[in-house]
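INFO batch 0412 | record 1 of 1 | parsing
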Amino acid sequence: MKVGIIKGYFEQSLVGEVRIAFEEALRMLKKFGMKIQEVTIPHMDLVPALQAASTRPESNSDHDHYLRTRPRDYSPGLLYSLIAGLLIPAPVYVTAQRVRRLLCQEFDTAFESVEVIVAPTLFSTAPTIEECNCGYIEVDGKRIELQDRAGNFLTRYTIPFNVTGLPTISICCGFSSSGLPIGMQISTPPFQEGKLFQVAHAYERAAEWHKRTPQL
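INFO prediction complete | emitting tokens
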């Protein structure tokens, strides 16, 4: 079985502990006889814009009633995001759907040479409430903003699989020095959930991270 790695997107601000855990997970997959292969998604850089231009208007369809009647019940950040979704013109939304179809086709092409694609779930371990309130984390000797003009960095690694609708699972692939879990995503082509669970189960059974719980 060939395992695909997408280069040029998931490395953005990836912290050291997550990188080490993910690379160790890849080594374990190789022990199963799997081959690691780089794949290319040419328009991967459009994913954040696609997510903002498509899912924000779509989510507003569920929130319309409460936005009109109870807007102050929302947190400021979510309220701002929903209002921003109301301001997206219809032509932009239609263009986003065309980009979504293009991205899906590029993933289909990538899956012609690999059976699964793996990636880190998050660029870091879970930030503290204080770090979320400050809007940044300090790690590896640098300051990383949790939000930039491209959107929320905490969801940056998961939205490629959200906007394409690909079957994807996140499993634990290690723990940080502070005891926080680190995640790895596994994705397959549409309607191949059986293969998805097969690979995830094989890794989980061998790594046994699911037997360890964080110290509270």
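INFO post-check: The longest strand covers residues 168-175.
INFO record closed
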